[in-house]
């Protein structure tokens, strides 16, 4: 679980002694210069405004892997997010989002029996030294420590040849335990001090691979935070999960999900519900107040 980021000289006139021929030659030279400059400017302007130029910086991404049988939450969906402690199964909500490693298939089965959709939390952008597969990550992919979280270091997401097998195994374990979907954490490393020169496009490539792999395993998939890439990632993800967008005045960036009929789950830690719930409800967000440790405590806005 990552903390909230502590988060673009004039020339002189001709002399009277200049002959008519000289003046005409000067006029013609000036006219020719103007035509050359005009032609060059037009060529540059057309190149800058052409579709090829505007998309040159975009990476070549795989097409979204569709999953018609995956869970697609309604815009208004009640939910509980608990990543620490024994899961409190008493809440009458549509969806539970819980830690994949910390919970057995029997917990998922119990929640299913109560009629809940169950989502697994997987950290896809950082290495956590307490996970059972921590030893599979070579030092070459481990970057700087994540501020505020002991035993956690950023991953070099460019090294997909190494991370692919590890993350695929996690996704398959999530599916084999009976989960209905997955929430990938820390998928905005390119905006953080990771120790690696991660780019916007490299993050896009990793995030689209994660989403497509989840869908290939029949799992619904949430986009966690990563607000600045929503326009590119919207076709790949089924819903969004965001932390503290009201505190940091960035909730409008999530509206493409709402406009596409895809649910937004949102959490605040510091604000009182009186400071965000009315606005959250008007935006059709499924917002609630949680404690930072993400235990059982919750106060839903609707």
Number of helices: 8
**Quick one: biggest sheet?**
9 strands, mixed
Within CATH, the superfamily of the largest domain carries the name Aldolase class I
CATH class of the largest domain: Alpha Beta
Named CATH architecture of the largest domain: Alpha-Beta Barrel
The portion of residues forming beta strands comes to 15-25%
Strand order of the largest sheet: 1-2-3-7-8-9-10-11-12
By DSSP, the count of extended strands is 12
Q: What is the helix fraction of residues, given as a range? A: 25-40%
Account of the protein in words:
- The chain is an alpha/beta fold.
- The chain folds into 2 domains: 20-54; 79-300, TIM Barrel, CATH 3.20.20.
- Helix content is 30%, strand content 18%.
- It is built from 8 helices and 12 strands.
- The chain has helices at 20-49, 51-54, 105-113, 160-176, 200-216, 230-233, 255-259, 277-282, and strands at 79-82, 95-99, 117-123, 126-128, 142-145, 152-155, 181-185, 220-224, 239-243, 264-268, 286-289, 299-300.
- The longest helix is centred in the N-terminal third of the chain and has 30 residues, at 20-49.
- It is globular.
- The two termini are 25 Å apart.
- Mean pLDDT is 86; it is low at 1-56.
